[in-house]
Design brief:
By secondary structure, this protein is mainly alpha-helical. The two termini are 23 Å apart. It contains five helices and no strands.
Length: 117
């Protein structure tokens, strides 16, 4: 079971890398006002959602303690990110505030995952 959990953790990290990487590659364009939500950001957020739900289920099936409040907060943040990216994915350019919000929420989700004990 540990190997399967570690595989899903790795996939979860790949998802966050895709989401954050998509944001960071658009930083120069954000300054110019031409940033847009890339498909990598949408796919990263979806990967995080799917693997996160799988990780919770696998950890509970393995009788490991799961902090449901932490998971609920992370899920809520991710749903907001996913909604923003999904709704605005076809726009030629994203509003600076919304784009910055997605980046900020992504970083916040990383800090919640790593610092909340």
């Amino acid at each position: 079971m540990d190997v399967l959990i570690n595989v899903f953790v790795a996939l979860h990290i790949i998802g966050i890398g895709s989401l954050l990487g998509g944001f960071l590659t658009q930083m120069k364009a954000l300054g110019a006002g031409t940033a847009r939500f890339s498909p990598a950001m949408l796919h990263g957020a979806l990967t995080m959602l799917i693997t996160g739900v799988a990780l919770v289920g696998l950890n509970q099936a393995d009788d490991q303690a799961v902090n449901n409040v932490k998971i609920g907060v992370k899920l809520a943040v991710l749903v907001v990110i996913l909604a923003l990216v999904y709704v605005k994915r076809d726009d030629e350019k994203a509003d600076k505030g919304l784009f910055a919000a997605v980046g900020g929420l992504t970083v916040a989700n990383i800090f919640i995952a790593t610092l909340w004990t």
